[in-house]
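Marked as duplicate of an earlier ticket. Keeping the data here for the record.
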Amino acid sequence: MSKKKELSPELKAECDAAKALFVSRKNALGLTQASLAESADISAAAVAMYLNGTNPLNAKFAVVFSRLLGVPVEKFSKRLAKEINGLTVASEQAVERGESATALDLVRQLLDKQGKGIAEDVKARLLAAAKSADRGEVMEHDSCRPGAVGDEVWITHLDMRAAVGGAYTPHHYPEILQDVRVSPRHLRDMGVEFREPRDLKLVTGWGQSMAPTIKHRDPMLVDTSVREFAGDGIYMFCWEDRHYIKRLQWVGEGELSMISDDTRFPPQSIRAKDADIQARALLVWNATLI
């Protein structure tokens, strides 16, 4: 088997620039290579090959990467920015000539130039979406689309420390769970209540004050659509510039009681308006040795 040809210095520099941007922004945005792969409709291995400089970046991946990280394509590849801009200019010129410049035409152009290696079913979905856009239709994005088995969806791990004791600190150890694939239907059968699967995220607890309910380094499923107090329960929130996962209980007159399940930590009264609620905890993955 012949050895894969190395990228030119210019193409390798694009991959390095993209990787540096990803590393610098992934924590703040809650991104992983797996979630990036899902958005780009490619495998996680393909993403790794782009970021590690094994394969050159292409326009399709560049557009998705730019959107998710909130950076212009020029930031990591002037070559691809020029190529993408060329498609836009061609569309504008066609409009000026009175010709039909449809989304379907643009997607076909892109696939003709950069479609090598893209699975046929992915190409078909891209073309179908463009055709629907040209007809003025809206293709509903279904975050519960069927997975490999059943109705599974990916749940992203938020790379942060949710403190169940004190303030969170950076961590440098492997998480028990990274992104996971779960069945929303099964979660609901278990009694887990949520509106949209896309709002579900994984976070890792830190500390002992919520034991035995939440032990040190337990992964938790949280609902990020809950951004205000919605009845007594366990919430992830920020208070006085620190992140916590604690029970919150309404005590009246704009006051909440911040409660630890470990009774060695006494309850603390806080103003409801001062608690910046980020999510509500729904489920804890407790690991038990047997």
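See parent ticket for discussion. The beta strands are 153-163, 180-182, 200-206, 219-223, 233-239, 242-252, 255-259, 268-271, 276-284.
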